[in-house]
Amino acid sequence: AFCTGRGEVVTGIEPPLTTPEGSFWIVKPQEGCPTGKVYGNLGLKPGEELPGEDPEKLRDAMVKDGISQSVCVNDLEKPAQMVLPKLERIKEALRESGFSTVLLSGSGATTFAHSKDKSADPRVALKGKDVDIEDMYVAGPLSFVTRQEGSWYSK
């Protein structure tokens, strides 16, 4: 689905995205990011438009070429990293260890990580990287679900 506005406008993507090969993980530090602080760090005035990538162009590129770091954009990532600097260290460590796409979810603090390598493990990537891996929730590798027209989701 393609979500716009504050995430409340949901439209289907046609054709559906291709399921990426490899491994997909979720990494969540114990700390959270207060949504108000993250949005406040954007520095926007009431009614001011958020500068940045055109979401529809990003969606179209993702449909055409699949997921990649260049099309997985979250405007709240930098403001969330200001609230919780460890998020930037997590992203850097995952990228350095070969995770090809690393993205913060919403206003934080969950990070999604995809690697084309099925054996990739973020716990290995984060060990010794100035983040307390013991206090993190790490889930994966996770499976994507798909849905055929008129049916429910399946593996």
Automatic annotation (TrEMBL):
Q: Which organism is it from?
A: Hemiselmis andersenii
Classification from the root reads: Eukaryota, Cryptophyceae, Cryptomonadales, Hemiselmidaceae, Hemiselmis
Q: Which UniProt keywords apply?
A: Nucleotide-binding
Q: Which InterPro entries match?
A: GHMP_kinase_C_dom (IPR013750), GHMP_kinase_C_sf (IPR036554)
Per UniProt, residues of the GHMP kinase C-terminal domain are 54-126
**Record keywords: Nucleotide-binding included?**
yes
One example GO MF annotation: nucleotide binding
**Pfam families, A to Z:** GHMP_kinases_C
Q: Which Gene3D superfamilies match?
A: GHMP kinase, C-terminal domain
- In Swiss-Prot or TrEMBL terms, this protein is called GHMP kinase C-terminal domain-containing protein
Question: Which interval of the chain is the signal sequence?
Answer: none
| The keyword Disulfide bond appears for this protein | no
| Top-level taxon | Eukaryota
